[in-house]
Amino acid sequence: MAEQVTKSVLFMCLGNICRSPIAEAVFRKLVTDQNISDNWRLDSAATSTYELGSPPDYRGQACMKKHGIPMSHIYISIHILCMDESNLRDMNRKSNQVKNCRAKIKLLGSYDPQKQLIIEDPYYGNDADFETIYQQCVRCCRAFLEQVR
Question: What is the pTM of this model?
């Protein structure tokens, strides 16, 4: 039985076509060679949109091929979807510390067709509260997916 993902790492650089995809591929190979890749969720991202949709730089691909490290990567845009205003403030504050941050930071509830902007924390609630936020997440995620598709 595969082990569960317990760790996550996001490698960041300006365009996500040179440094961060190389770091992601190197790290992926390391955890794969150690048979612990199931423990990790890996990705790379950019702080800009300059190279949106671009593959890794051909020189980086050649370097990785020379070292026998597979690399399949396309630069993607980053969407950070927060559950409430507190999360949104925290992420905006953190993004302000990153020069030229281009991540799209919004409330997930801003996509809710029923206009329920905040996804309340059900931690102290009951089963019905969890069902409520599940339904809201379904609506919001579907609407988000339709918009960014």
Answer: 0.65
For 123-143, what is the mean pLDDT? Answer: 92
SS3 10: strand
7-148, which class in CATH? alpha beta
Give the catalytic positions in this structure.
Answer: 13, 19, 121
Cβ–Cβ under 8 Å, residues 78 and 58? no
Enumerate residues 6+ apart whose C-beta is below 8 A from 7. 39, 40, 41
Q: Which residue has the higher pLDDT, 48 or 67?
A: 67
Residue ranges of domains in the chain:
7-148
Sign of CA dihedral 58, 64, 66, 68: negative
